[in-house]
Amino acid sequence: MSRRSGVTAPGRKGDGALSDWERSSTARVIPPARPRKLAKVPFVELADGRLQGVVSSGSDIGRVYVSSVAAGTYAFACSTNNNRPCGGARGMFCNHIRALINEAVLQYGAERVARYLRVALSGEESSAHSITSGMSDARPPQADSKAAAVVFSRFLRHLAYLELAPTTAPLPEMQWFPPTRAVA
Fold first, then answer.
1. pLDDT tens, position by position, 122-151
2. Is the dihedral of CA 141, 106, 123, 129 positive or negative?
3. What is d(CA 64, CA 83) in angstroms, rounded to the nearest whole number?
4. By the 8 A CB rule, do 138 and 152 touch?
């Protein structure tokens, strides 16, 4: 893979038709480990020292949960989009957090998720179940939900970009990035 362009050399794994923005991007574009359905967990990311994301409610179409697990300590938090605590996250991972871990493994791969969260897997093959078990065995503390607002805001920003028509023109709100390939 070329370090500069992020484009895979012909004949290598991952080679395929790249869109214009993927070819011109200075950031490396990483395809998902496996395709995933977005209905249950529409947003998942490894950021800010946490696995975090948005999980749809199984009972109310208008409700989502913002869930997170901290790297290293595995401190977890889960609350609704209007900052009400999750009833299932009382002393252990709730179903929303388990769904978030499952989708993160689909998106990033089990090894990357385990490495990011610093989960020591004792000779087991990495999977969502082994990662969840490894963290649960450490009896992680319940964290406060102060990061929920930031995560939900990122999710809403993500949705706004999905509604934009594809274009190569610069986005006004992104013009604070320095131009690429500019001579200083």
1. 776 889 999 999 999 889 998 888 888 889
2. positive
3. 10
4. no
